[in-house]
Amino acid sequence: MRIVEKLLYGIGGLLALILLFIALCNHNPDIAVKIGERLKKPDEATETKMPEEGQAGNFVIKTTVTQGEQPAAESPTSDDDDAEKKLKIPPKVAALTGYIPIKSIGTEVTQAKADEILETLSKGEIGEKLTFDEEFYPYYAMLNDTQKALYRQLYANADAMQKNFSPVTDITVTDLKNAFTAVVNDHPELFWVDTAYKYKYAPLGTVADITLVFNVTANDIDGSKSKFEDAAKLILDKTYGYYTDYDKEREAHDALIGSVRYDANAPMNQSAYSALVYGRTVCAGYARALQYVLQQLDIPCYYVTGYAGENHAWNIVKLEDGQFYNVDSTWDDTTPNTYDYFNCSDAEYAGNHMRKDLSIYLPACRGSRYSGLEVNPSVPSDTTTVTPPKKPTTTGPATVTTVTGTTTTTTTTGDGTTTQAPVVDNTANITVQTVRGSEEGYIGDIDDYYIECFAAMMATDDYDVSFDLIITDKDLWEDIYEAYDEGDCQDGYIERYLVEKHRNSCVMSVTAQEREDGSWLLSHAAEIN
Description:
The protein is of the alpha+beta class and 529 residues long. The chain contains 16 helices and 18 strands. The protein is globular.
């Protein structure tokens, strides 16, 4: 009886504790959220530390590169796919797209390493005194308080040219994704910031390290800013003498498409700089340039991303009537220029434009007062055609040697020469290239490694890609390992592959094994989405 009595007391005490915990979570929901975050592990890349000297020589690295990863705010993918199929894109403008979704590169580190980073890495500029008018910066308004603090920090560090820093507060991968997207979409003046970022995170999902990616204009930022502002002034000057926002908007629209031409191969074509300074860009450059110019005129203008036959970008503008209007200056830049996509409602865009990502939370466009006021220029004869821009071409390596089992097959293109690599037992498929300073024909430096990886990835349209490479020695393997860890390999070939093949993400695993002659066999396995 005493045992039963003690058992009943124990069960009663346990139930009391459970009820107390439930009541506590109900009173303070943040406790339950934090517990959930601790139990949840993101589906991201895994980093493996380099083994110490003397350990077995069979090592593995794994990294994830994501292009256009969808924010949590986006509507269900299946619905998007159905809606995309229903869009009808006019042939005249079907090729005039080119927006590239934001790319992120995440690397998992141990909790101890994450704690060390958070303790030693500076937060840089935190922007605690910055304020953003939500009428002009709508993406900022979409964020929660944690993400707004991170937004201010991202903006302040970008403005201060500070690439690497730790987050100002505890954040998740999703917090970083939404805050970075918001900063990029709100601020076309940050033209030196690429639409990509890198980060390191702990196993439980907290971000410890953030790295911004700057383009070539950052090398002479003062000179680049001067060119950017001078180019924008040429358009702003066209609006002088006009008093209404509508008149200024129309003149800015006309001046922009009159001075810019669509070019899918334009450098930095996701930035306003490409349109204003180079005069060549894609839809993203048109939209960011118009956004910047209208912001300078105190006219609310928002950057919109979505789908219009391909990934596409355009603008939303708020005019004197307090209403919002869609403007697609890219699609108006035809021969001749038109107003077909100028100051349109959502209903008018419904058949050929669809918002995605955070842009679905921008205001609805229901304005009509400033729609249809413009007259298109005379239409040319029916024989006039629009020639789609040529896509960039990729040239593979000049010489490749493939070893299968004990049979060597050599293929040569161009003026390259090939030397035969030693046969490796039990190796299904080994691809190597003759490189400078390497009599054996093994890959001898990291640049040639990037070339071979890119060529192997481009050689197939499969979504599961496997290939092997032989490199000269352990020193090069350690350099390659560090390059993956720091994101340089992603920059070296994976991001280029994603763009060329129009893929969304790549998970690359690399296994390294030392061979008898001191060279190293690297086996690659990529999962593509």
